[in-house]
């Protein structure tokens, strides 16, 4: 494939299910690359990336296996992988710091983008309407995300540490990873979906979003298990650059 062809690569011809797997892989590989390249700092970098992107992507509805779901679940759920790697390879306080970084990044995005929206656009401007459609809804999305993010992420950090103390052996990484993340994802889904979508969509649509959102996050939690083992191997074999 020529470079000029890559620039115009059209992925819309692929089914959503294949694109979902591609997005899943891209997110998890990005975390490992960031971790390999920048160490602990790379995981901190990923947190605001995933938080901001997920809160934009969540506004888009897509069909997966004939079920309507909100986009953004993979990217948002990937932040749990980042904090779990911090909990596994470092300390509880390192994972807690990542959660606070996520709070700050989302709050800053909401404030700065609303100031940007307040500017009167030039007559030649063509992006204001699109900006308004995306970031005009962001405060409610962001409020739901901030509350859900805080409850779920701090629970995840606590739960991972709880299970790690009781099952410290490396062979139980899968247990502490999934036991902490799956319940945390349930808390996140209940809180976020209620704040972000209750009253904005019909009840049956709301329940569908609630159910399918958790199902997708549950699947992502299972899928990220091999990647936390890879991150553990990278750490144990000192393959991490610029670690601190």
From TrEMBL:
Lineage: Bacteria, Pseudomonadati, Thermodesulfobacteriota, Desulfobulbia, Desulfobulbales
GO CC annotations, alphabetized: plasma membrane
Location(s), subcellular: Cell membrane
Membrane topology: Multi-pass membrane protein
NCBIfam families xref list: queuosine precursor transporter (TIGR00697)
Gene Ontology molecular functions: transmembrane transporter activity
Organism: Desulfomarina profundi
Identification of the protein by name: Probable queuosine precursor transporter
Matches recorded under Pfam families: Vut_1
Similarity annotation: Belongs to the vitamin uptake transporter (VUT/ECF) (TC 2.A.88) family. Q precursor transporter subfamily.
Role, per record: Involved in the import of queuosine (Q) precursors, required for Q precursor salvage.
């Amino acid at each position: 494939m020529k470079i000029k062809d890559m620039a115009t690569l059209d992925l819309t011809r692929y089914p959503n299910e294949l694109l979902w797997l591609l997005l899943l892989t891209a997110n998890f590989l990005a975390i490992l690359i960031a971790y390999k390249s920048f160490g602990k700092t790379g995981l901190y970098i990923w947190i605001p990336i995933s938080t901001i992107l997920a809160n934009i992507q969540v506004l888009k509805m897509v069909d997966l296996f004939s079920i309507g779901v909100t986009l953004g679940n993979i990217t948002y759920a990937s932040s749990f992988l980042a904090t779990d790697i911090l909990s596994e390879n470092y300390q509880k306080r390192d994972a807690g710091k990542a959660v606070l970084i996520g709070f700050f990044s989302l709050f800053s995005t909401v404030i700065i983008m609303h100031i940007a929206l307040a500017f009167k656009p030039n007559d030649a401007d063509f992006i204001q309407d699109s900006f308004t459609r995306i970031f005009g809804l962001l405060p409610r999305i962001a409020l739901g995300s901030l509350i859900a993010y805080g409850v779920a992420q701090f629970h995840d950090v606590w739960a991972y540490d709880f299970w790690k103390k009781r099952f410290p052996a490396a062979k139980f990484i899968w247990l502490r990873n999934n036991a902490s993340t799956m319940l945390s994802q349930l808390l996140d889904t209940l809180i976020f979906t209620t704040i972000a979508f209750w009253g904005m969509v019909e009840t049956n649509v709301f329940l569908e979003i609630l159910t399918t959102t958790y199902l997708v996050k549950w699947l992502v939690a299972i899928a990220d298990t091999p990647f936390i083992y890879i991150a553990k191997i990278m750490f144990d074999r000192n393959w991490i650059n610029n670690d601190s």
